[in-house]
Amino acid sequence: MALDPTDLFDIRSLLSDEERAVQDSVARFTNERVLPIIGDCFEQGRFPRELIPEIAAMGLLGSSLPEQYGCAGLNGVSYGLICQELERGDSGIRSFVSVQSSLCMYPIFAYGSEEQRQQYLPAMARGEIIGCFGLTEPHGGSDPANMKTHAKRDGGDWIINGAKMWITNGNVAQIAIVWAQTEDGIQGFIVPTDTPGFTAQEIHKKMSLRASVTSALFFDNVRVSDAQRLPNVRGLKGPLGCLTQARYGITWGPIGAAIACFTEATEYARQRILFNRPIAANQAVQLKLADMARRITLAQLLSLQLGRLKDAGTMQPTQVSLAKWNNVRMAIDIAREARDILGGAGITTEHCPIRHALNLESVITYEGTETVHQLVVGREVTGINAF
């Protein structure tokens, strides 16, 4: 029996019926609704907002949060498969769902009051309220402890001043989860984007994540009530806890991008005739394709085990760092090799490898650069902090 080239170890057989059903439904959505338009969206620098109601109707926003808040209540592996299939379409689509789910809905669920959960989570699950996550600042993203944005008490309110940079969804969001220095340490605030003094400025001239909205946020004496503060967390563990949730999804997403590039390169190699035979008959091309299949298989096993650890409640941040480092590096290398196999055709948006390669330049940087994750693992194995 022939093996599936994109699943040589039959990892799908390790999934539950529900997990397979989730993967299949999101795969159909990607095939039918994302892939026909995403090349044009990337070329035009346009996020396909028209897909938001469909994404919400499928239960993909906050999918791992409890049903009592209007969410799907899926397990971590299912969320990972959602990320994988969406990023097979485009990193920008996966980023939208990741930010909404892990960086905006999760902190409200984990750190918010019950009133905040009831007010925001059901509407966010329906796609009626879109969020963005304000942590990174213009002067340095890898050192969040050096945060300059600050919030000061003014009676029963807080006054926020500062700026955030490289914020996904910034110009489509109705709320921002903003992290700011206070007299009691770093705290999080739910800031409606129509609050006076709040400004979102979309970042243009991007060569990566072009089918995603990326913004700079500015806070000029933005006043919010204490009811908008996330009451159940203080310090960096708040935003870092959110990032661990999001990075988990990112370990799965690039597998989808790699599969898309590998599949297209394989099909092209079978059809492209040079010197009277398909280039797939050349040893050099077969070695490249075999290495892609090997690396995809290893990444799939890594993320599946990470998902099982997450669902068992034993997942550690270092394990997430190792998986993000490995899997994004895997995907970006495969995208580049696939582009090479396609030759000149590989530089156009008629084919996916160049688009994925460019997108993955952002994915390998955001939510912890490759170097940062290497140092996290290094700290774990040596017991010495090299930051």
Short description:
51% of the residues lie in helices and 15% in strands. By secondary structure, the protein is α+β, with helices and mostly antiparallel strands.
If you consult CATH, what is the topology of the largest domain? Butyryl-CoA Dehydrogenase, subunit A, domain 3
Helix content range: 40-55%
Uncertain parts = none
- Class inferred from helices and paired strands: alpha+beta
Tell me the distance between the termini: 50 Å
* Overall morphology: globular
Instruction: Output the radius of gyration.
Output: 21 Å
Strand content: 5-15%
Q: How many domains make up the 3D coordinates?
A: 3
What is the average of the pLDDT values?
Answer: 97
CATH class of the largest domain: Mainly Alpha
The biggest sheet, with number of strands, parallel, antiparallel or mixed sense and barrel status, is: 4 strands, antiparallel
Total of DSSP H or I helical runs spanning 4+ residues = 10
The beta-strand count equals: 9
CATH architecture of the largest domain: Up-down Bundle
Strands of the widest sheet, in order across it, are 2-3-7-6
CATH superfamily of the largest domain: Butyryl-CoA Dehydrogenase, subunit A, domain 3
